[in-house]
Design brief:
Distance between the termini: 40 Å
Structural class: mainly alpha
Number of domains: 1
Mean pLDDT: 82
Largest sheet: none
Oligomer: single chain
Radius of gyration: 21 Å
Number of strands: 0
Number of helices: 17
Shape: globular
Low-confidence stretches: none
Order of helices and strands: HHHHHHHHHHHHHHHHH
Length: 454
């Protein structure tokens, strides 16, 4: 009972919300951009929705892998910032930049050179494949600036500036919405480019967001304003020690993202209407789940700083508080989504079948959000930020590949309906929560990895 009181005491909640709300605002803006994209594209028909959804699966894979790079770096960034070690903050940035450059080079080459092949993994009808390939070929140009924006945003959050990424994202949504209106439908004399217009608007919005981040950081000389010499003041020993902790995180995100992408492959085997419904439902859920994601990021920042400062008991105390607070936030999010989903679905101009499928998925996923929030808290915010990256990797990827993916394809093979496949995929988070809570109570996840690099 004492832990419950601590988790919901006003002073603690003010600290959490003070960090979580600006982060959540940035996530909300990004999700709103995605929602607006899907709604505006939805007026072009189900083929366009499915095509954009399939093409964006490649971007989804990229962002999750970049999240792995950022999460691996954030373990060190938060802990180094906890001791005001700016030199090692910037050396960590150098490692993140190098890994991000290699990753985006691969994805950009794939998007530009083999878009039909990549989109064909997720949709199989000729029209969505052609539309999706055109879309992917254009947005592929934005991948490098997206990587830079994501890394800089993570550095800003870990060093105490959570407002700049939010302001940059706000500019991005304005450009994206305006560009969509002009280029999808041909308003104000612009050419009506349809789905290609949406891709151009998205690429321009991402470029503008990155430009604002870079200019502001270097003009104000924020902690992320590092020179090349500071970024790459690294030696073999630093790389080896960094990789020991960061590699499991990156491997975690690569394996998890591929597994999560296979969920879309399974859904796609159920038909274009099913894939379009999944795209609509996931976009709607993510729009409201952003606050929980913001809290998860705040939790990771708090715990990373406490571990870096050597406060083991404080880190453990915070982990229990967040393990109570996060599911409560997920439950509230689910209830709100269940209440407002008719309004969201009314924005789409798709078939009645697709709307019915999307409604069913939204209600099922709304009921799962408390578990999903707790799973996110345990893996990303507690174990990973606390330094136990290997266990976080094994737990996160193991549940996807040993439970979620096999059961999803088993459901498709046995002829389960879309909602049945969705319930089978939920086994991923359910198993994760059970094992994660057991590991949390053992309290062996606190590891000061930043001390190894100093």
């Amino acid at each position: 009972m004492e832990r419950v009181k601590k988790a919901f005491e006003p002073a603690f909640l003010r600290r959490v919300f003070g960090t979580a709300l600006p982060i959540a605002a940035q996530f909300f803006i990004a999700s709103a951009v995605n929602l607006i994209d899907v709604v505006m594209i939805g007026r072009l028909g189900e083929d366009s929705v499915a095509a954009a959804g399939a093409a964006n699966q490649i971007f989804f894979l990229l962002t999750l892998m970049l999240f792995g790079i950022n999460s691996g770096g954030s373990v060190f960034l938060s802990q180094f910032w906890g001791t005001q070690d700016l030199r090692n903050v910037r050396r960590t940035m150098g490692m993140m930049y190098a890994l991000g450059a290699v990753l985006t080079a691969v994805f950009t080459a794939g998007a530009l050179l083999a878009p039909r092949f990549l989109v064909g993994f997720y949709v199989h009808e000729p029209s969505p494949v052609t539309l999706g390939a055109d879309y992917l070929r254009i947005v592929g140009f934005s991948y490098p600036v997206t990587a830079l924006s994501m890394i800089l945003a993570m550095v800003c959050r870990c060093t105490g500036d959570v407002s700049l990424p939010t302001r940059a994202s706000m500019l991005s949504i304005v450009i994206n919405v305006g560009g969509n209106a002009l280029l999808i439908y041909g308003l104000l004399g612009f050419p009506a480019l349809g789905l290609r217009g949406a891709a151009i608007a998205t690429a321009l919005a991402r470029a503008a967001e990155c430009l604002v981040m870079v200019v502001t950081i270097y003009r104000k000389k924020l902690p992320a304003a590092a020179g090349l010499r500071e970024l790459f003041d690294i030696d073999r020993d630093f790389v080896r020690k960094y990789a020991r902790t960061a590699a499991p995180v990156l491997l975690n995100e690569v394996l998890w993202s591929v597994g999560a992408s296979l969920y879309s492959v399974a859904y796609g085997m159920l038909g274009t209407a099913a894939l379009a419904a999944v795209q609509i439902a996931n976009t709607a859920i993510q729009l409201l789940f952003v606050f929980t994601r913001g809290m998860s990021n705040a939790c990771g920042i708090f715990i990373g700083r406490l571990v870096g400062a050597g406060d083991r008991e404080g880190a453990i105390d915070h982990s229990y508080r967040f393990a109570l607070l996060m599911p409560a936030a997920g439950l509230c999010t689910g209830l709100v989504m269940a209440a407002v989903h008719p309004l969201i679905l009314s924005l789409y101009h798709v078939s009645a079948e697709t709307i019915l499928l999307a409604r069913t998925l939204i209600l099922i996923q709304s009921a799962q959000l408390a578990f999903k929030a707790l799973a996110m808290c345990l893996v990303v915010a507690v174990f990973r930020a606390g330094g136990d990256t290997l266990f976080a990797c094994l737990l996160d990827t193991g549940t996807v590949w040993l439970a979620g993916v096999p059961l999803a394809f088993l459901g498709v093979f046995l002829g389960a309906p879309l909602w049945g496949v969705c319930l089978l995929i939920f086994s991923d988070d359910l198993v994760k929560v059970i094992i994660g809570l057991i590991h949390l109570k053992k309290e062996r996840w606190v590891k000061n990895v930043s001390a190894q690099l100093q």
